């Protein structure tokens, strides 16, 4: 009697679970707000717990995610383009699906919104799981760093080559003649510049000398005028005394 009562209770519970499942699907009043979802990690309904309807897939483990990412890396998906927008991943957010395909985060979100289904655009895997990765961002930054280094090395090589060409003449006679003419012109220009700089120094020196002579002359004239003014009264007194005698 105990076994029959327990089995009856189990049947009643399963019947209630099925009733709840149908009520959810029909959106009947009093039923739950959400229907049975197959999205991994979603909350199970009563019918799913009893195994009466399909359950969502279990969440992937860390090892399974690593295997999916390694599979994507072997195909070099992050080195190519996003299959939805046909653009490179660059420094934008990237999403890895449980089926090992990668897309832009915004692209797969827009695809889910407008397609109204959770299906991989490439392999049509339904109810996939997704995780944000940075493979595309790392590859893009590595590519940018490589280009910057290449440009810098090229610049340094060109600078070194120009410096080397200024010291070592060409073997070709015409190029060697042109090289010698350029060196002679450079030496002539440097010599003229040095002479002009020296001439400017001499001009400034003579200008200072002329100014000093002019200042000295002005002081001498001022001293002479002062001396004459002091001498004039004494000479006047002597002349008057001579007339009195």
From TrEMBL:
* Bias (Polar residues): 236-245
In Swiss-Prot or TrEMBL terms, this protein is called: RING-type domain-containing protein
SMART domains linked: IQ, RING
**Keywords in UniProt for this one?**
Metal-binding, Zinc, Zinc-finger
Read off the Gene3D superfamilies from this record: Zinc/RING finger domain, C3HC4 (zinc finger) (3.30.40.10)
Question: In the UniProt record, does the keyword Zinc-finger occur?
Answer: yes
Q: Which InterPro entries match?
A: IQ_motif_EF-hand-BS, RNF32, Znf_RING, Znf_RING/FYVE/PHD
Q: Which GO terms describe its molecular function?
A: zinc ion binding
| Signal peptide as annotated in the record | none
Q: Does the keyword Repeat apply?
A: no
User: One Pfam family name from the record?
Assistant: zf-RING_2
Q: Which CDD domains match?
A: IQCD, RING-H2_RNF32_rpt1
| Span list, region Disordered | 224-245
The chain positions of domain RING-type read 82-124
Q: Which domain of life is it from?
A: Eukaryota
Annotated PROSITE patterns = IQ, ZF_RING_2
């Amino acid at each position: 009697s105990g076994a029959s009562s327990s089995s009856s209770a189990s049947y009643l519970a399963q019947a209630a679970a099925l009733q709840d499942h149908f009520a959810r699907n029909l959106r009947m009043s009093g039923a739950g707000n959400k229907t049975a979802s197959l999205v991994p990690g979603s909350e199970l309904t009563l019918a799913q717990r009893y195994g009466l309807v399909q359950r969502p897939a279990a969440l992937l483990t860390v090892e399974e995610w690593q295997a999916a990412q390694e599979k994507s890396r072997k195909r070099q998906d992050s080195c190519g383009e996003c299959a939805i927008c046909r653009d490179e991943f660059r420094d934008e957010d990237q999403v890895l699906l449980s089926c090992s395909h990668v897309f832009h985060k915004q692209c797969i979100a827009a695809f889910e919104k407008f397609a109204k289904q959770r299906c991989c655009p490439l392999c049509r895997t339904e109810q996939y799981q997704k995780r944000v990765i940075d493979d595309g961002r790392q590859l893009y930054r590595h590519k940018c760093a490589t280009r910057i280094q290449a440009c810098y090395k090229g610049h340094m090589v060109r600078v070194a080559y120009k410096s080397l060409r200024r010291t070592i003449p060409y073997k070709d006679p015409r190029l060697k003649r042109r090289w010698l003419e350029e060196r002679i012109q450079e030496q002539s220009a440097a010599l003229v510049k040095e002479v002009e700089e020296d001439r400017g120094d001499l001009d400034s020196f003579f200008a200072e000398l002329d100014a000093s002579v002019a200042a000295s002359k002005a002081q001498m004239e001022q001293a002479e005028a002062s001396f004459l003014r002091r001498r004039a009264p004494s000479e006047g007194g002597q002349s008057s005394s001579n007339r009195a005698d």
